[in-house]
Specification:
The chain has helices at 6-9, 19-41, 46-49, 54-82, 97-117, 126-151, 158-187, 304-316, 338-347, 372-378, 394-406; strands spanning 191-200, 203-210, 223-228, 237-241, 252-257, 274-281, 295-300, 323-329, 350-356, 366-367, 387-391, 414-416. The two termini are 26 Å apart. The protein folds into three domains: 3-186, no CATH class; 191-281, Elongation Factor Tu (Ef-tu), domain 3 (Beta Barrel), CATH 2.40.30; 286-416, Rossmann fold (3-Layer(aba) Sandwich). The chain is α/β, with parallel strands linked by helices and 422 residues long. A hairpin with a 2-residue loop joins strand 1 (191-200) and strand 2. The chain has a six-stranded antiparallel sheet with strand order 4-3-6-1-2-5, with no helix packed on it. Strands 10-9-8-7-11-12 form a six-stranded parallel sheet, with helices on both faces. Helix 4 packs across helix 5. It is elongated, with a radius of gyration of 26 Å. Helices cover 43% and strands 17% of the residues.
């Protein structure tokens, strides 16, 4: 991210500019570099995201974007108060084109942050927001490049000019790859819907098989971005955890709960429909801990999807390590995979603990929420060395993590998904 600053210090530097002017320019170049990095973060390069998990990458992407806009805004404000005459005319009919480009770029970046942080209060549909997000980011970035090139104050020397030109070309090629080449590759590797199964009143499982190619290999617990009823160039994709066994990649399954406009259309999917996948992604997998003495899974609602993938994979591998699965739902009829989980208890060394917020009168299991008392009751000294996987609503996940810390479970043994950003 500091590469553009080389244009400020290599070779001859303009004299007489003053500290605040130079500092402002440094902020501008740094902010642009951060926005350039944003395209890499959202490119989903598997090797780059694998050590962290793409959910963490996306959180970093969000906060880096806020910092970048703040830095660029500070770049403008410093000039505004220390050297206002350098800004020239505000009227775009009279101002130089590169200055107008810079001002519009700042406005677009600001709208980008506002629409991202307050998407739901502003009632912006997710698919519409994604298109808006991409449009604002790409247009703002290109206008900022025009602004820098037009100003030319620190890049007018030939060596600096070529350095910045190469830097700019890299980001432009990356944008082309993300928005043209990658969707084309997905388009050439389609999938066919082979099954549509209703799990509960509001959740469905889609089965997909590769159409004319070998499909993907994945680790149990990973997820993929699914495009359904549309072209991959339209960027109407949504992330879902794979719920099937990693030992059978020839047919993938995704269990999806009706939570929004897209997910409410899942039940309209027909066998034979075409789908596209981008994946697999995610570090939320038992395969990263092959020597673990056992595993504890804690999930709520459809958060059980990656857990089911891990359990099914362990069963297909004939793994006999001790397993504990604490699964929370609202009502008995909301339990996804109830029969599948019961059958897995026959194939695995699995203790299954259901927790219902509103249980029926004859319910013999745990009731209410996953609580401190429940965790202390079902966890033991034997499970203290296990690996813990948590997936569900954020309040539940936060509470469970806090309680596990209190029970002296090492942080490195606690793994969780963070997908509230989508």
């Amino acid at each position: 991210m500091i590469a553009p600053l080389l244009t400020l210090i290599l070779g001859e530097v303009p004299r007489g500019s003053g500290f605040w002017w130079d500092f402002s320019m440094a902020l501008g170049f740094s902010g642009m570099a951060m926005f350039g990095v944003q395209f890499i973060l959202t490119a989903r390069f598997k090797r780059a995201s694998a050590p962290f998990g793409i959910d963490i990458i996306y959180y970093f992407h969000r906060y880096l974007g806020i910092i970048a806009v703040a830095i660029i805004l500070l770049h403008f404000l410093i000039i505004r108060f220390s050297n206002a005459e350098a800004l020239g005319e505000i009227n775009p009919l009279q101002a130089p084109g590169y200055m107008t480009a810079g001002r519009i770029s700042l406005i677009l970046f600001t709208l980008l942050i506002i629409s991202s942080l307050w998407r739901k209060p502003l009632h912006i549909h997710y698919d519409e927001w994604r298109m808006l997000h991409i449009g604002l980011a790409t247009t703002g970035f290109l206008l900022a490049l025009i602004h820098i090139e037009g100003g030319g104050y620190y890049i007018n020397a030939p060596a600096k000019h070529w350095l910045w030109a190469a830097y700019t070309l890299f980001w432009l090629l990356l944008i082309i790859y993300l928005r043209l080449i990658k969707p084309w590759k997905m388009h050439n590797r389609p999938y066919r819907i082979t099954g549509v199964k209703q799990e509960t009143d509001t959740s469905w499982t889609l089965a997909l098989a590769p159409d004319g190619h070998n499909g993907i290999s994945f680790k149990p617990g990973q997820f993929a971005w699914l495009t359904l009823h549309d072209s991959p160039w339209h960027i109407k994709e949504h992330p879902f955890s794979i719920s099937s066994s990693a030992m059978h990649p020839e047919q993938l399954e995704f269990t999806i709960k009706e939570l929004g406009d897209f997910t409410r259309q899942i039940k309209q999917t027909k066998v034979g429909d075409i789908a596209y996948l981008d994946g697999p992604y995610g570090a939320f997998s038992i395969d990263h801990y092959p020597d673990a003495p056992g595993f504890v899974f804690i999930a709520g609602g459809v958060g059980a999807a990656p857990v089911l993938s891990m359990l099914r994979t362990l069963a297909d591998r004939h793994d006999r390590r001790p397993l504990l699965f604490i699964y929370a739902n609202n009502q008995l009829q909301d339990i996804i995979y109830r029969e599948a989980l019961e059958s897995l208890t026959q194939r695995l060394n699995l203790q299954l603990v259901h927790v219902l917020q509103n249980p029926p009168a004859d319910w013999q299991g745990a009731s209410g929420f996953i609580s401190t008392s429940l965790l202390r009751e079902v966890l033991s000294d034997k499970t203290s060395g296990f690996e813990y996987f948590i997936c569900g609503p954020k309040p539940m996940s936060d509470m469970v993590q806090q309680e596990l810390h209190k029970q002296k479970i090492a942080m490195k043994k606690i793994h969780f998904e963070l997908f509230e950003m989508v």
